[in-house]
Design a protein that fits this description.
By secondary structure, the protein is α+β, with helices and mostly antiparallel strands. The protein is built from five helices and eight strands, in the order ααβββααβββαββ. The protein has one domain.
Length: about 260
């Protein structure tokens, strides 16, 4: 498994990450892995005139833990360090001490529909990255949707085989300095996928695409295993990477 520092150096997360210390000036040089920001406001996220991808800028419309789904895990005013995993098998081993039934016992309130439990519990306060394959994607659009993109990740490029996990590119928070990070993550996803054709239903991605996904942990206690994802790619847990911070396309031989 790679070290956190080497992973952070390797990740091509845009320089927007350096702007997360909210409207404060940096007085001292920042650590390499967690840079502080200059005193500035992030640019507006209004789509440019003639933009062909207005869905990048959709705002979040969900009712279940909306604040937790539209904030990245922070520490001391900056993004918390990223914990890297080389594959879904290693990520599953990391989750084992807080797997679904244990989390439901510890935090029963997270299983209540539309709960306003916006603060992440301790087990969720991690930023992680994992190398996996995109097998399916769904845009939660329409009157009942929250505008998130649901991405089903698999451990293998072989269809219907291996482990699967949900990651979500959340729609934008209504305000705040992180809006551009959310828009950028959605743009990265759509640039990889091309035309989605997945509004309200899962579109199978064939062949599966190898990617590195970075984001914050989220326990989706309102669902159970088997309720989320297409039949051919059922996640092994209700833990998610949600929201996605960055998604990077990898060649088949890349680490």
């Amino acid at each position: 498994m790679s070290t956190p520092v080497s992973c952070l150096v390797r990740l091509r997360i845009p320089c927007l990450i350096a702007c997360l210390a909210i409207q404060t000036a940096c007085q001292t040089p920042a650590p390499v892995t967690r840079p502080e920001s200059p005193p500035s406001t992030l640019p507006e996220t209004t789509p440019p005139a003639g933009s062909s991808r207005p869905e990048v800028y959709e705002e979040f419309r969900g009712q279940h833990r909306p604040q937790a789904k539209t904030q990245y895990v922070m520490k001391d005013g900056q993004l918390a360090p990223v914990e890297p995993f080389d594959d879904l098998e290693a990520f599953k081993a990391f989750l084992n001490p807080q797997i679904d039934q244990i989390m439901r016992s510890r935090h029963p309130h997270l299983s209540k529909a539309n709960t306003k439990a916006d603060q992440r519990v301790a087990e969720e306060r991690h930023n992680v990255s994992v190398v996996a394959y995109i097998h399916a994607v769904k845009h939660e659009s329409g009157s009942d949707g929250d505008n998130d993109y649901h991405v089903i990740l698999g451990s293998s490029p072989t269809p219907d085989a291996g482990l699967f996990l949900t990651a979500e590119a959340s729609a934008l928070p209504p305000d705040g300095t992180q809006r551009d990070l959310f828009a950028h993550a959605r743009q990265e996803l759509l640039s990889i996928l091309g035309p989605c054709h997945c509004n309200g239903h899962f579109r199978r991605v064939s062949p599966p695409l190898r990617v590195r996904v970075t984001g914050s942990l989220f326990f989706d206690g309102v669902h159970s295993v088997g309720e989320v994802g297409p039949q051919y790619a059922q996640p092994f847990t209700v833990w998610e990477i949600h929201p996605i911070l960055s998604i990077e396309r990898l060649d088949s031989g890349a680490n």
